[in-house]
Amino acid sequence: MNTNLGFCLALHRAHASLQLKLDDELGIHHGISFNDFALLNLLAEADGGRVSIPELVRPLGQPQSSVLRQLIVLEKIGLVVREGANGFRQAVLRPAGRALVNAARETADSICTEAVESIAPAAVEMVSAALVTLARTPTLAL
């Protein structure tokens, strides 16, 4: 098998395994999925807790219609609100969403720490840098 294909398949398996664990623990302790956490975390890190909906597509790896469906659910439970008009819609993190994502970060951090504890810190840093580069690769742009 091609080394690059092998790397991408191993990356997919690692992601799938980690996502299942994060979904389970975040669901049990906070009532959200890992995808919900990722969206809420993006909003929490954004200036003013607001991001235009189209800007959420690439970092979440989902089509805009999926992001919108996810936002509707999070809005119904009071974690976010959608604002704007004339095609400039934004997702805005509400105080309850900020409190939830802050608490959920501890859970996610604990799981991620456990997941990589058997890997040398220098290797984690190197792979992390490589993944950031891969995510920015122009040939992967939508």
The helix count comes to 6
Low-confidence stretches: none
> Helix/strand/pairing class, anyone?
mainly alpha
Spatial strand sequence of the major β-sheet? 1-3-2
| First and last CA, distance | 27 Å
Order of helices and strands: HHEHHEEHH
**Helix share, percent:** 55-70%
Radius of gyration: 16 Å
Which sheet architecture does the biggest sheet show?
Answer: 3 strands, antiparallel
Number of strands: 3
Shape: globular
Overall pLDDT: 93
Beta-strand content: 5-15%
Structural account:
With 142 residues, the protein is mainly alpha-helical. It is 66% helix and 8% strand. The protein has helices at 3-30, 34-45, 57-60, 64-76, 95-116, 121-135; strands at residues 50-52, 80-83, 90-93. A 3-stranded antiparallel β-sheet has the order 1-3-2. A hairpin with a 6-residue loop joins strand 2 and strand 3 (90-93). The radius of gyration is 16 Å and the shape is globular. The model has no long low-confidence stretch (mean pLDDT 93).
Structure summarized in a few sentences:
The chain is mainly alpha-helical and 142 residues long.
In terms of topology, how is this protein built?
Elements: H1 3-30, H2 34-45, E1 50-52, H3 57-60, H4 64-76, E2 80-83, E3 90-93, H5 95-116, H6 121-135
Antiparallel strand pairs: 1-3, 2-3
Helix pairs in contact: 1-5, 2-5
